[in-house]
Amino acid sequence: xxxxxxxQQLAPTxxxxxxxxxxxxxxxxxxxxxxxxIKGTAVTLGKALAKKLGVPAEVLGHAxxxxxxxxxxxxxxxxxxxxxxxxxxxxxxxxxxxxxxQSTFLVAPGSTMQSVKDAxxxxxxxxxxxxxxxxxxxxxxxxxxxxxxxxGVDIATQAMLEGKIQAIALSxxxxxxxxxxxxxxxxxxxxxxxxxxxxxxPKNKPAALAYVSEFIEEAKASGLVRSALDEMGLKSSIIAxxxxxx
Length: 246
Hints:
single chain; 246 residues; D-Maltodextrin-Binding Protein, domain 2; 33% helix
Protein backbone atom coordinates (compact mmCIF):
# COMPACT_ATOMS: atom_id res chain seq x y z
CA UNK A 1 0.00 0.00 0.00
CA UNK A 2 1.32 3.44 -0.91
CA UNK A 3 1.92 6.03 1.80
CA UNK A 4 -0.82 8.43 2.85
CA UNK A 5 0.79 11.56 1.37
CA UNK A 6 1.02 9.96 -2.07
CA UNK A 7 -2.53 8.61 -1.91
CA GLN A 8 -3.81 12.08 -1.02
CA GLN A 9 -2.48 13.31 -4.37
CA LEU A 10 -3.01 10.28 -6.59
CA ALA A 11 -6.12 8.62 -5.15
CA PRO A 12 -7.81 11.20 -2.88
CA THR A 13 -11.20 9.43 -2.99
CA UNK A 14 -9.72 6.10 -1.92
CA UNK A 15 -9.82 4.70 -5.45
CA UNK A 16 -7.86 5.43 -8.62
CA UNK A 17 -10.11 7.20 -11.14
CA UNK A 18 -8.75 6.40 -14.61
CA UNK A 19 -9.91 8.74 -17.38
CA UNK A 20 -9.97 7.09 -20.80
CA UNK A 21 -11.13 8.28 -24.21
CA UNK A 22 -13.50 5.86 -25.94
CA UNK A 23 -13.54 5.50 -29.74
CA UNK A 24 -14.80 3.04 -32.38
CA UNK A 25 -11.34 1.47 -32.74
CA UNK A 26 -8.46 1.11 -30.29
CA UNK A 27 -5.11 2.89 -30.15
CA UNK A 28 -2.43 3.49 -27.54
CA UNK A 29 -4.78 6.02 -25.90
CA UNK A 30 -8.26 5.12 -27.23
CA UNK A 31 -10.29 2.44 -25.48
CA UNK A 32 -13.34 0.68 -26.95
CA UNK A 33 -16.68 -0.42 -25.57
CA UNK A 34 -17.28 -4.17 -25.30
CA UNK A 35 -20.87 -4.37 -24.13
CA UNK A 36 -20.92 -2.56 -20.80
CA UNK A 37 -17.14 -2.93 -20.40
CA ILE A 38 -14.45 -0.47 -21.47
CA LYS A 39 -11.19 -2.08 -22.52
CA GLY A 40 -7.96 -0.78 -23.97
CA THR A 41 -4.27 -0.16 -23.42
CA ALA A 42 -4.95 2.80 -21.11
CA VAL A 43 -7.41 0.69 -19.10
CA THR A 44 -4.88 -2.11 -18.65
CA LEU A 45 -2.18 0.31 -17.54
CA GLY A 46 -4.53 2.19 -15.22
CA LYS A 47 -5.71 -0.98 -13.51
CA ALA A 48 -2.13 -2.16 -13.05
CA LEU A 49 -1.29 1.20 -11.48
CA ALA A 50 -4.24 0.89 -9.09
CA LYS A 51 -3.07 -2.59 -8.11
CA LYS A 52 0.43 -1.28 -7.41
CA LEU A 53 -1.08 1.49 -5.26
CA GLY A 54 -3.28 -1.00 -3.41
CA VAL A 55 -6.56 0.79 -4.20
CA PRO A 56 -9.64 -0.07 -6.32
CA ALA A 57 -9.72 1.11 -9.93
CA GLU A 58 -12.58 3.07 -11.48
CA VAL A 59 -12.58 3.45 -15.28
CA LEU A 60 -14.27 6.64 -16.47
CA GLY A 61 -15.10 6.79 -20.17
CA HIS A 62 -14.89 10.10 -22.05
CA ALA A 63 -15.76 11.09 -25.62
CA UNK A 64 -12.28 12.42 -26.39
CA UNK A 65 -8.87 13.31 -25.00
CA UNK A 66 -9.97 16.96 -25.14
CA UNK A 67 -12.84 16.21 -22.79
CA UNK A 68 -10.41 14.64 -20.33
CA UNK A 69 -8.03 17.58 -20.66
CA UNK A 70 -10.74 20.16 -20.07
CA UNK A 71 -11.95 18.49 -16.85
CA UNK A 72 -8.48 18.17 -15.32
CA UNK A 73 -9.07 20.90 -12.72
CA UNK A 74 -12.48 19.57 -11.63
CA UNK A 75 -11.28 16.71 -9.40
CA UNK A 76 -13.11 14.18 -11.58
CA UNK A 77 -10.17 11.91 -12.42
CA UNK A 78 -6.73 11.02 -11.08
CA UNK A 79 -4.69 9.63 -13.97
CA UNK A 80 -4.93 9.53 -17.76
CA UNK A 81 -2.88 8.39 -20.75
CA UNK A 82 -2.91 11.03 -23.50
CA UNK A 83 -1.05 12.32 -26.57
CA UNK A 84 1.37 15.09 -25.68
CA UNK A 85 1.35 18.61 -27.11
CA UNK A 86 2.16 22.11 -25.89
CA UNK A 87 -1.47 23.17 -25.51
CA UNK A 88 -2.35 20.16 -23.37
CA UNK A 89 0.58 20.87 -21.05
CA UNK A 90 -1.35 23.96 -19.91
CA UNK A 91 -3.99 21.64 -18.42
CA UNK A 92 -2.13 18.55 -17.17
CA UNK A 93 1.34 17.51 -16.08
CA UNK A 94 2.82 14.76 -18.22
CA UNK A 95 4.99 12.01 -16.86
CA UNK A 96 7.00 9.53 -18.91
CA UNK A 97 5.98 8.43 -22.39
CA UNK A 98 5.03 4.84 -23.17
CA UNK A 99 4.29 5.11 -26.90
CA UNK A 100 5.61 6.86 -30.01
CA UNK A 101 2.70 8.53 -31.80
CA GLN A 102 2.34 9.36 -35.47
CA SER A 103 -0.75 11.04 -36.88
CA THR A 104 -1.88 11.49 -40.47
CA PHE A 105 -4.99 11.66 -42.66
CA LEU A 106 -7.51 9.13 -43.86
CA VAL A 107 -8.70 10.40 -47.24
CA ALA A 108 -12.12 9.75 -48.72
CA PRO A 109 -12.86 7.25 -51.51
CA GLY A 110 -11.96 8.75 -54.87
CA SER A 111 -9.67 11.41 -53.39
CA THR A 112 -6.50 12.22 -55.33
CA MET A 113 -4.60 13.34 -52.22
CA GLN A 114 -1.29 11.50 -51.87
CA SER A 115 0.40 13.50 -49.09
CA VAL A 116 -0.29 15.86 -46.20
CA LYS A 117 0.75 18.73 -48.48
CA ASP A 118 -2.10 17.84 -50.86
CA ALA A 119 -4.60 18.30 -48.02
CA UNK A 120 -3.49 21.90 -47.54
CA UNK A 121 -5.81 23.35 -50.17
CA UNK A 122 -8.88 25.53 -50.38
CA UNK A 123 -12.04 23.45 -50.55
CA UNK A 124 -10.61 20.46 -48.67
CA UNK A 125 -12.70 19.66 -45.61
CA UNK A 126 -10.71 18.04 -42.80
CA UNK A 127 -12.48 16.52 -39.82
CA UNK A 128 -11.07 15.72 -36.41
CA UNK A 129 -11.96 15.40 -32.76
CA UNK A 130 -12.30 18.72 -30.94
CA UNK A 131 -9.63 19.81 -28.46
CA UNK A 132 -7.17 17.07 -29.34
CA UNK A 133 -3.43 17.27 -29.93
CA UNK A 134 -3.88 15.54 -33.27
CA UNK A 135 -6.46 17.99 -34.63
CA UNK A 136 -4.45 20.99 -33.45
CA UNK A 137 -1.43 19.66 -35.35
CA UNK A 138 -3.54 18.89 -38.42
CA UNK A 139 -4.95 22.41 -38.43
CA UNK A 140 -1.48 23.95 -38.16
CA UNK A 141 -0.19 21.78 -41.01
CA UNK A 142 -3.04 22.62 -43.40
CA UNK A 143 -3.95 26.32 -42.96
CA UNK A 144 -5.64 26.59 -46.38
CA UNK A 145 -8.11 23.76 -45.70
CA UNK A 146 -11.45 23.96 -43.89
CA UNK A 147 -11.30 22.35 -40.44
CA UNK A 148 -14.43 20.84 -38.89
CA UNK A 149 -14.47 19.71 -35.27
CA UNK A 150 -16.48 16.70 -34.14
CA UNK A 151 -17.22 15.42 -30.65
CA GLY A 152 -16.00 11.91 -31.43
CA VAL A 153 -14.38 9.69 -34.06
CA ASP A 154 -17.66 7.95 -34.92
CA ILE A 155 -19.30 11.27 -35.84
CA ALA A 156 -16.35 12.26 -38.04
CA THR A 157 -16.50 8.85 -39.74
CA GLN A 158 -20.18 9.32 -40.49
CA ALA A 159 -19.45 12.76 -41.93
CA MET A 160 -16.97 11.22 -44.37
CA LEU A 161 -19.47 8.53 -45.35
CA GLU A 162 -21.96 11.31 -46.10
CA GLY A 163 -19.41 13.19 -48.23
CA LYS A 164 -19.18 16.17 -45.88
CA ILE A 165 -15.41 15.95 -45.38
CA GLN A 166 -12.52 14.72 -47.52
CA ALA A 167 -10.08 13.78 -44.78
CA ILE A 168 -10.02 12.66 -41.14
CA ALA A 169 -7.09 13.50 -38.84
CA LEU A 170 -6.18 10.79 -36.30
CA SER A 171 -3.31 8.66 -35.11
CA UNK A 172 -2.18 6.11 -37.68
CA UNK A 173 -3.29 3.30 -35.33
CA UNK A 174 -6.80 4.67 -34.95
CA UNK A 175 -7.17 5.28 -38.68
CA UNK A 176 -6.65 1.59 -39.36
CA UNK A 177 -9.96 0.84 -37.68
CA UNK A 178 -11.75 3.81 -39.23
CA UNK A 179 -10.62 2.83 -42.74
CA UNK A 180 -12.52 -0.46 -42.49
CA UNK A 181 -15.71 1.53 -41.94
CA UNK A 182 -15.21 3.72 -45.02
CA UNK A 183 -14.75 1.42 -48.03
CA UNK A 184 -12.32 2.83 -50.56
CA UNK A 185 -10.66 5.25 -48.15
CA UNK A 186 -6.86 5.42 -47.83
CA UNK A 187 -4.36 6.30 -45.10
CA UNK A 188 -1.61 8.63 -46.29
CA UNK A 189 1.98 7.43 -46.05
CA UNK A 190 3.42 10.62 -44.58
CA UNK A 191 2.43 12.34 -41.33
CA UNK A 192 1.73 15.79 -39.89
CA UNK A 193 2.56 14.86 -36.28
CA UNK A 194 5.27 12.80 -34.62
CA UNK A 195 4.83 12.87 -30.86
CA UNK A 196 4.34 10.60 -27.86
CA UNK A 197 1.56 9.23 -25.71
CA UNK A 198 2.29 9.56 -22.01
CA UNK A 199 0.84 9.17 -18.54
CA UNK A 200 -0.48 12.38 -16.98
CA UNK A 201 -2.06 13.74 -13.82
CA PRO A 202 -3.87 17.00 -13.00
CA LYS A 203 -1.61 20.00 -12.41
CA ASN A 204 0.52 20.54 -9.30
CA LYS A 205 0.68 16.99 -7.94
CA PRO A 206 4.43 16.35 -7.90
CA ALA A 207 4.37 13.18 -5.79
CA ALA A 208 1.69 11.67 -8.02
CA LEU A 209 3.62 12.64 -11.14
CA ALA A 210 6.84 11.04 -9.91
CA TYR A 211 5.02 7.84 -8.93
CA VAL A 212 3.19 7.39 -12.25
CA SER A 213 6.38 8.10 -14.20
CA GLU A 214 8.20 5.40 -12.26
CA PHE A 215 5.27 3.06 -12.91
CA ILE A 216 5.46 3.66 -16.68
CA GLU A 217 9.18 2.86 -16.72
CA GLU A 218 8.48 -0.38 -14.84
CA ALA A 219 5.61 -1.19 -17.21
CA LYS A 220 7.85 -0.76 -20.26
CA ALA A 221 10.67 -2.81 -18.76
CA SER A 222 8.41 -5.65 -17.59
CA GLY A 223 6.65 -6.03 -20.95
CA LEU A 224 3.29 -4.81 -19.62
CA VAL A 225 3.05 -1.97 -22.16
CA ARG A 226 3.85 -4.36 -25.01
CA SER A 227 1.27 -6.91 -23.89
CA ALA A 228 -1.36 -4.19 -23.30
CA LEU A 229 -0.90 -2.96 -26.87
CA ASP A 230 -0.81 -6.45 -28.35
CA GLU A 231 -3.98 -7.44 -26.52
CA MET A 232 -5.82 -4.71 -28.47
CA GLY A 233 -4.33 -5.83 -31.79
CA LEU A 234 -1.78 -3.00 -31.83
CA LYS A 235 1.20 -5.21 -32.59
CA SER A 236 2.90 -2.62 -34.82
CA SER A 237 2.71 0.14 -32.21
CA ILE A 238 6.11 1.41 -31.11
CA ILE A 239 6.96 1.64 -27.41
CA ALA A 240 8.77 4.78 -26.27
CA UNK A 241 12.43 4.36 -25.25
CA UNK A 242 13.29 4.07 -21.57
CA UNK A 243 13.33 7.40 -19.73
CA UNK A 244 11.58 9.41 -22.45
CA UNK A 245 9.59 12.27 -20.94
CA UNK A 246 6.17 13.22 -22.22
